[in-house]
Design goal:
The complex is a heterodimer of chains A (433) and B (306).
Chain A (H helix, E strand, L loop, with lengths): L1 H15 L2 H27 L4 E7 L2 H17 L17 E6 L4 H13 L4 E5 L3 H4 L3 E4 L5 H22 L4 H8 L6 E5 L2 E5 L1 H35 L2 H6 L4 H42 L10 H28 L3 H27 L4 H6 L6 H11 L4 H29 L9 H9 L2
Parallel strand pairs in A: 1-2, 1-3
Antiparallel strand pairs in A: 3-4, 5-6
Helix pairs in contact in A: 1-10, 2-10, 3-6, 6-7, 8-10, 8-11, 8-12, 8-14, 10-11, 11-12, 11-14, 11-15, 12-14, 14-15, 15-16
Chain B lengths: L2 E12 L2 E12 L3 E5 L6 H8 L7 E6 L2 E2 L8 E4 L11 H11 L4 H14 L15 H13 L5 E5 L7 H16 L3 E6 L2 H7 L2 E6 L2 E7 H8 L3 E8 L10 E6 L3 E6 L5 H11 E9 L3 H18 L1
The chains are: A alpha/beta (433), B alpha/beta (306).
């Protein structure tokens, strides 16, 4: 037991002290933070006044577009799916109107956009009411938010015009054109929660990525560590002091502890940084992020499923590391083992959208995918407790079998140099007492 | 007499290949024992069974008079043939870790590591990573790892490989010191000159079997003074005459040869003087290298006839 602890300690310290670990541990939260926070900061700060010209054949239409633009700017209320140019956008528009249309005017406006006096102009042909078409000229095509704002203003103006032509009053037209709200209510066994699609998708996906990455990365660390001891022949020295079983166990636990440490740091950083960045994200994207918070059971189950998933794959990767003689050989063996993990990612989107299909159920019971898929299901909506327990039990039983098989392959493979073993040879190793 | 190690009809096969075949020998306490043999003879396979890395298919291994158990291995030190240290870790960290695995406390392991590093002139490299050291320095560090816990029995697989002459002397002195303290040492090597000077007894293995076993003095005596050392300039066609020469090891201007049974040394000298200028002619006990080559070749003949 003392030996196992010594091996755990060495694996842990060696890895935690590497620059790669510190880099990855610190960088990951910063990166996530940056991705969430920075763009929003830029959006908030880019608040210089934009000069836009609405050029239309008839003055009334141009004014109407201008009005709509001002209204949209003020309320941000048009369409909840496109409220990205919404109320929090502090950009000011200075909108002027030009009539009538002429090629000279167009050239003049283009010139002004080019030399920066103007940020953009909308070109509305006389037949726009029929064709429902306009052109928005601007320097950067990436000004999609501005373009979509103009597009919406034009749509409202044109629709308003058509409704007026059919005898609707202005207020009637306004009601007709007003936005429609659909609230989604998410029902689980604890009752109904008001929820919103984006947040409910976003969070499980981030969690899935986190568990997938950690299981894969730390599994591969185990493989590389085994291979390193094999190629540097340290293993011969170690095996004169410890049994192969102790060595493998120490290694898997030690590397796993590094993984848990990293997850711990990320969780801590997430709860500090996260509240801040979620708040900003909430401001930017609006209400859709309001459900993006971690419930306690999900938070507690993360390490549990990480351990199950990690241990499963670490055993397999340890066996591979012992079988092969070089990184190149390892890569060939690695793929079939990594395949179930990749499948988890492939099916993840479907499972997050609909976590209770029979397909999702069986994937969360299949030994190699159960820890990851069950965790995804948990993070979307709590499945019945018996399913969670069954999934864990299946994982544990299959883990027991995997430890048995892997340790046998490990014990023999670690001392075999030279040619790569064939499948019948490996089967013989497993049978060999 | 107390035996530190006893192999009793040990056999080990990997699939169809028999690596060790019915091998038996004993090492008395306090002896330096040489395990010799050509590459692939089964030396490393035998050693692995002595330290519990692999288990014999049949036969028994005893350490210190008891059947091999993992607990007994704390009294054994092992220097593998190929360097086995963590390349990315510092020398001192490697040593402290390996010492701890053998049951030392951190403090004790560290203290002894520094002591040994000073003694082997590695003191200023203690905090260097293994990969930054030369092969010879790594070899010395590896040796320290094997002796750190003051084992009663040391198994050293090619301990002198990669060492410059000065370091070899330092290491040899360390070994003789350990012998004086009553430790038992097993060497595995094919460097015959070292064995000849250090070992009390040897076991020569070939194709997994013991082909020569016993005290070095007795073995050499049994061959008698049937060997000739010749320094010469010119040609020696007589080396190919099977009536005169049983086998020879020719270095161009120096040759060691063993007389064919019944051949006369004076006649050999006479013949040699006809084709070459002879600088030195001496009849000696055969060197271990000669015995080695002779024995390995004769067993090869036997097995190919069989």
């Amino acid at each position: 037991m003392r030996n196992v602890l010594l091996i755990i300690r060495r694996e842990y310290l060696v890895r935690v002290r590497t620059k790669a670990f510190m880099f990855f541990t610190v960088l990951m939260p910063l990166l996530v933070g940056a991705v969430v926070v920075l763009p929003s900061q830029f959006m908030l700060r880019a608040s210089s006044t934009r000069h836009i010209v609405i050029a239309a054949a008839d003055r009334e239409l141009a004014d109407s577009v201008k009005n709509q633009l001002t209204v949209l700017r003020a309320s941000g209320e048009d369409d909840p799916m496109q409220n990205d140019g919404g109320k929090k956008n502090q950009q000011d528009f200075e909108v002027s109107v030009e009539t009538p249309l002429s090629e000279a005017l167009r050239q003049q406006l283009i010139g002004e956009v080019r030399n920066g006096n103007l940020d953009g102009f909308a070109w509305i042909e006389p037949d726009a009411v029929a064709t429902r078409k306009g052109i928005y000229y601007s320097r950067g095509t990436s000004d999609f938010m501005e373009a979509s704002l103009v597009s919406r203003a034009l749509r409202l103006a044109l629709s308003g015009r058509q409704l007026a032509d059919h005898g609707f009053s202005l207020s009637q037209a306004k009601t007709l054109l007003g936005p429609v709200h659909v609230d989604t209510v998410h029902i689980d066994r604890h009752g109904a929660n008001k929820s919103n699609g984006l947040g409910a998708f976003f969070l499980p996906f981030v969690l899935l990525l986190a568990i997938y990455m950690t299981v894969l990365i730390y599994g591969l660390y185990v493989m590389r560590s085994v291979l390193e001891e094999k190629t540097s022949r340290v293993v011969e020295v170690l095996l004169s002091s410890v049994s192969p079983m102790q060595l493998m166990a120490g290694k898997i636990i030690g590397v796993g502890a590094v993984g848990l440490t990293q997850i711990g740091i990320w969780t801590a950083a997430g709860s500090v940084l996260g509240s801040g960045s979620f708040a900003v994200a909430h401001e930017i994207i609006g209400d859709s992020m309001k459900d993006a918070h971690l419930s306690t059971p999900v938070l507690c189950l993360f390490p549990v499923f990480f351990i199950l998933g990690y241990a499963t794959y670490a055993c397999l990767y340890a066996a591979i590391g012992a079988m092969v003689n070089s990184d190149e050989e390892a890569q060939q063996f690695q793929f079939p083992v990594t395949l179930p993990l990749i499948l988890c990612m492939v099916f993840a989107t479907a499972i997050i959208r609909d976590p209770n299909t029979p397909f999702a159920f069986w994937l969360s019971m299949f030994p190699l995918t159960s820890p990851i898929i069950m965790f995804v299901r948990v993070s979307v909506s709590m499945p019945p407790v018996w399913q969670i327990v069954a999934s864990m039990a299946i994982s544990l039983v299959s883990l027991y079998g995997l430890v048995w098989i892997s340790s046998r392959i490990y014990r023999i493979g670690i001392l075999m140099y030279g040619k790569r073993p064939t499948l019948p040879e490996i089967l013989r190793w497993i049978r060999y007492a | 007499m107390a035996y530190t190690l006893e192999l009793d009809r040990v056999t080990k096969a990997y699939d169809d290949f028999v690596a060790v075949d019915n091998l038996s020998f004993k090492i008395p306490e306090g002896e330096i024992f040489g395990l010799l043999g050509p590459n692939g003879a089964g030396k490393t396979s035998s050693i692995r069974m002595m330290i519990g890395i692999t288990i014999p298919d049949s036969g028994g291994v005893s350490l210190f008079g008891q059947p091999l158990t993992r607990r007994l291995l704390d009294r054994v030190g092992y220097l593998p043939e190929e360097r086995g240290l963590y390349k990315k870790m510092k020398i001192i960290e490697n040593l402290v870790f390996l010492g701890q695995l053998k049951g030392l406390s951190v403090a004790e392991s560290r203290r002894r590591s520094h002591q040994w590093l000073e003694r082997l002139e590695l003191g200023r490299w203690a905090n260097s990573k293994v990969e930054e050291l030369s092969k010879g320095m790594q070899q010395k560090a590896q040796f320290i790892a094997a002796v750190l816990h003051e084992p009663d029995f040391m198994i050293l697989d090619e301990p002198f490989s990669g060492l410059d002459p000065a370091s070899s002397v330092v290491l040899k002195d360390a070994l003789l010191d350990l012998k004086k303290q009553g430790k038992t040492i097993l060497f595995s090597t094919h460097r015959m000159d070292t064995v000849e000077r250090l070992c009390d007894s040897i076991c020569l293995v070939n194709q997994g079997r013991s082909v020569l076993l016993g005290s070095l003095r007795e073995i050499k005596a049994s061959y008698g003074r049937s060997s000739v050392q010749l320094e010469y300039e010119g040609e020696l066609p007589l080396l190919n005459d099977p009536m005169l020469v049983a086998n020879s090891n020719d270095f161009g201007n120096y040759v060691e040869l063993r007389l064919a049974p019944g051949a006369d040394a004076q006649r050999l000298l006479e013949r040699a003087m006809r084709t070459a200028e002879i600088r030195r002619f001496e009849m000696v006990e055969p060197s271990l290298e000669e015995i080695f080559i002779d024995t390995v070749e004769s067993t090869k003949v036997v097995t190919s006839n069989a």
